[in-house]
Design a protein that fits this description.
The chain is an alpha/beta fold. Helix content is 28%, strand content 22%. The longest helix has 16 residues.
Protein backbone atom coordinates (compact mmCIF):
# COMPACT_ATOMS: atom_id res chain seq x y z
CA UNK A 1 0.00 0.00 0.00
CA UNK A 2 2.77 2.47 0.90
CA UNK A 3 4.63 1.66 -2.34
CA UNK A 4 1.44 2.34 -4.33
CA UNK A 5 0.96 5.69 -2.57
CA UNK A 6 4.59 6.60 -3.22
CA UNK A 7 4.22 5.65 -6.90
CA UNK A 8 1.01 7.70 -7.14
CA UNK A 9 2.83 10.67 -5.59
CA UNK A 10 5.76 10.15 -7.91
CA UNK A 11 3.43 10.07 -10.91
CA UNK A 12 1.74 13.25 -9.75
CA UNK A 13 5.11 14.94 -9.26
CA UNK A 14 6.19 13.91 -12.75
CA UNK A 15 2.93 15.11 -14.27
CA UNK A 16 3.40 18.49 -12.66
CA UNK A 17 7.11 18.95 -13.38
CA UNK A 18 8.23 16.50 -16.05
CA UNK A 19 9.22 19.20 -18.50
CA UNK A 20 11.11 21.50 -16.18
CA UNK A 21 14.24 22.60 -18.04
CA UNK A 22 17.65 22.71 -16.44
CA UNK A 23 18.37 26.43 -16.75
CA UNK A 24 21.97 25.97 -15.58
CA UNK A 25 22.55 24.20 -18.91
CA UNK A 26 22.96 27.01 -21.45
CA UNK A 27 21.87 24.59 -24.18
CA UNK A 28 18.34 25.06 -22.85
CA UNK A 29 18.52 28.82 -23.50
CA UNK A 30 17.34 28.84 -27.12
CA UNK A 31 18.80 31.21 -29.69
CA UNK A 32 15.42 31.95 -31.26
CA UNK A 33 14.39 33.77 -28.06
CA UNK A 34 16.64 36.64 -29.12
CA UNK A 35 14.08 37.92 -31.64
CA UNK A 36 11.46 38.09 -28.89
CA UNK A 37 13.82 40.00 -26.59
CA UNK A 38 14.73 42.50 -29.34
CA UNK A 39 11.05 43.04 -30.17
CA UNK A 40 10.27 43.56 -26.50
CA UNK A 41 13.25 45.93 -26.08
CA UNK A 42 11.65 48.20 -28.68
CA UNK A 43 8.80 48.68 -26.17
CA UNK A 44 11.14 50.34 -23.63
CA UNK A 45 9.97 53.95 -23.56
CA UNK A 46 11.68 55.35 -20.48
CA UNK A 47 15.33 56.07 -19.71
CA UNK A 48 16.98 54.50 -16.70
CA UNK A 49 17.80 51.05 -15.42
CA UNK A 50 16.14 47.93 -16.81
CA UNK A 51 15.77 44.92 -14.48
CA UNK A 52 15.87 41.77 -16.62
CA UNK A 53 14.08 38.97 -14.73
CA UNK A 54 15.31 35.53 -15.83
CA UNK A 55 18.10 37.14 -17.83
CA UNK A 56 19.53 33.87 -19.21
CA UNK A 57 22.15 34.76 -21.81
CA UNK A 58 21.53 38.46 -21.14
CA UNK A 59 20.36 39.14 -24.70
CA UNK A 60 18.59 42.28 -23.51
CA UNK A 61 21.87 43.82 -22.35
CA UNK A 62 23.13 43.70 -25.94
CA UNK A 63 19.86 45.13 -27.26
CA UNK A 64 20.30 48.10 -24.89
CA UNK A 65 23.83 49.01 -26.03
CA UNK A 66 22.67 52.00 -28.09
CA UNK A 67 19.89 53.07 -25.73
CA UNK A 68 19.75 55.32 -22.68
CA UNK A 69 19.34 52.40 -20.31
CA UNK A 70 21.59 50.60 -17.86
CA UNK A 71 21.05 46.95 -17.04
CA UNK A 72 20.44 44.74 -13.99
CA UNK A 73 20.43 40.98 -14.68
CA UNK A 74 18.39 38.73 -12.34
CA UNK A 75 18.36 34.96 -12.57
CA UNK A 76 18.20 31.94 -10.31
CA UNK A 77 21.89 31.23 -11.01
CA UNK A 78 24.75 33.65 -11.55
CA UNK A 79 25.15 34.49 -15.23
CA UNK A 80 27.79 37.20 -14.66
CA UNK A 81 29.52 39.00 -11.81
CA UNK A 82 26.68 41.52 -11.60
CA UNK A 83 23.77 39.03 -11.69
CA UNK A 84 21.38 39.30 -8.76
CA UNK A 85 20.71 35.67 -7.87
CA UNK A 86 16.98 35.34 -7.28
CA UNK A 87 14.69 32.30 -7.29
CA UNK A 88 11.22 33.75 -7.83
CA UNK A 89 9.57 30.66 -6.33
CA UNK A 90 11.58 30.84 -3.11
CA UNK A 91 13.14 34.26 -2.51
CA UNK A 92 11.56 37.62 -1.72
CA UNK A 93 11.60 40.14 -4.54
CA UNK A 94 14.90 42.07 -4.33
CA UNK A 95 14.73 45.81 -3.80
CA UNK A 96 15.60 47.26 -7.17
CA UNK A 97 16.28 50.79 -8.29
CA UNK A 98 14.98 50.24 -11.81
CA UNK A 99 12.76 52.17 -14.19
CA UNK A 100 11.68 49.11 -16.17
CA UNK A 101 10.86 45.55 -15.14
CA UNK A 102 11.46 43.26 -18.12
CA UNK A 103 10.17 39.66 -18.08
CA UNK A 104 10.79 37.67 -21.26
CA UNK A 105 9.88 33.99 -21.01
CA UNK A 106 9.82 34.27 -17.22
CA UNK A 107 6.27 34.33 -15.89
CA UNK A 108 5.45 30.81 -17.13
CA UNK A 109 7.83 29.41 -14.49
CA UNK A 110 6.38 31.33 -11.53
CA UNK A 111 4.39 29.04 -9.23
CA UNK A 112 2.18 31.86 -7.90
CA UNK A 113 2.09 34.34 -10.80
CA UNK A 114 -0.84 36.36 -9.43
CA UNK A 115 1.04 37.17 -6.20
CA UNK A 116 4.22 37.93 -8.15
CA UNK A 117 2.38 40.24 -10.55
CA UNK A 118 0.75 42.06 -7.65
CA UNK A 119 4.16 42.47 -6.02
CA UNK A 120 5.86 43.86 -9.12
CA UNK A 121 3.14 46.46 -9.63
CA UNK A 122 4.25 48.03 -6.34
CA UNK A 123 7.39 50.16 -6.36
CA UNK A 124 8.83 53.13 -8.15
CA UNK A 125 9.48 51.63 -11.59
CA UNK A 126 7.50 53.23 -14.39
CA UNK A 127 7.20 50.41 -16.92
CA UNK A 128 6.63 46.65 -17.06
CA UNK A 129 7.26 44.75 -20.27
CA UNK A 130 6.50 41.05 -20.32
CA UNK A 131 5.90 38.11 -22.58
CA UNK A 132 3.61 35.23 -21.73
CA UNK A 133 2.29 32.18 -23.51
CA UNK A 134 -1.30 32.32 -22.29
CA UNK A 135 -3.91 29.61 -22.21
CA UNK A 136 -5.45 31.25 -25.27
CA UNK A 137 -2.27 30.48 -27.20
CA UNK A 138 -1.46 27.10 -25.65
CA UNK A 139 -4.47 25.68 -23.79
CA UNK A 140 -3.36 22.07 -23.32
CA UNK A 141 -2.34 21.51 -19.69
CA UNK A 142 -0.07 18.55 -20.49
CA UNK A 143 1.73 20.50 -23.24
CA UNK A 144 2.28 23.35 -20.81
CA UNK A 145 3.81 20.98 -18.25
CA UNK A 146 6.05 19.43 -20.92
CA UNK A 147 7.42 22.92 -21.49
CA UNK A 148 8.14 23.16 -17.76
CA UNK A 149 5.49 25.85 -17.25
CA UNK A 150 3.93 25.77 -13.81
CA UNK A 151 0.89 28.02 -14.29
CA UNK A 152 -2.05 28.48 -16.65
CA UNK A 153 -3.06 32.12 -16.93
CA UNK A 154 -5.34 33.72 -19.44
CA UNK A 155 -4.16 37.04 -20.82
CA UNK A 156 -7.02 38.76 -18.99
CA UNK A 157 -5.66 37.45 -15.65
CA UNK A 158 -2.41 39.34 -16.19
CA UNK A 159 -4.06 42.51 -17.43
CA UNK A 160 -6.58 42.57 -14.56
CA UNK A 161 -3.77 42.61 -11.98
CA UNK A 162 -1.48 45.04 -13.81
CA UNK A 163 -4.10 47.67 -14.64
CA UNK A 164 -4.72 48.34 -10.96
CA UNK A 165 -1.59 50.54 -11.01
CA UNK A 166 -0.49 50.50 -14.66
CA UNK A 167 -1.95 51.35 -18.06
CA UNK A 168 -1.76 48.79 -20.84
CA UNK A 169 0.07 50.48 -23.74
CA UNK A 170 0.47 47.59 -26.11
CA UNK A 171 -0.57 43.98 -26.48
CA UNK A 172 0.43 41.91 -29.48
CA UNK A 173 1.45 38.42 -30.43
CA UNK A 174 5.01 37.57 -31.44
CA UNK A 175 6.25 34.05 -32.19
CA UNK A 176 3.58 32.36 -30.08
CA UNK A 177 3.87 34.79 -27.16
CA UNK A 178 1.71 37.65 -26.01
CA UNK A 179 3.87 40.74 -25.53
CA UNK A 180 2.53 43.38 -23.15
CA UNK A 181 3.81 46.79 -22.20
CA UNK A 182 2.43 48.70 -19.21
CA UNK A 183 3.28 52.16 -17.86
CA UNK A 184 2.53 53.35 -14.35
CA UNK A 185 -0.63 55.41 -13.94
CA UNK A 186 -0.08 58.94 -12.63
CA UNK A 187 -0.61 59.17 -8.86
Amino acid sequence: MIKNLYRAGSSLRSLLHFGAPNWANEGNLHEDWEARVITMADEIKVPGTVADFGCGKMRLKHALDNRRNSYIPLDFISRSDDTIVFDVNRDPLPKLNASVYFLSGFLEYVINPQAFLEEITIGNHSQIILSYVSRELRPNYIDRRRMGWVNNLYISDIIKIAIQRFTLNSLFEHSGNHIMSFTRKPS
